[in-house]
Amino acid sequence: MDNTTSPRRRRIVWPNVLTVVSAAILISAEVFGAAFAGSWAIASLFALGTLGARALDGLFMAGGIFVMAQFVRAAHRVEPFTAD
Fold this sequence. Notes:
The chain is mainly alpha-helical. It has helices spanning 14-45, 49-78, and strands at residues 11-12, 82-83. Strands 1-2 form a two-stranded antiparallel ribbon. Helix 1 (14-45) runs antiparallel to helix 2 (49-78). It is elongated.
């Protein structure tokens, strides 16, 4: 007799996935909107010009990506995407 067991497949918990994706879309709109507004305001305040504004855009966007990655990682721990 063969006593091997097949590995159990994990199923996706769609309500958790949709909750995290929806929250990520909402929060990313706020984070990236604030990044663009902040770079524009700082560039205008210090008269950095277009090139300075674009450099700040890149810097703040990198910060926004970092914030969003941390948010999704934390949300994934609270709302697991898969279940047995």
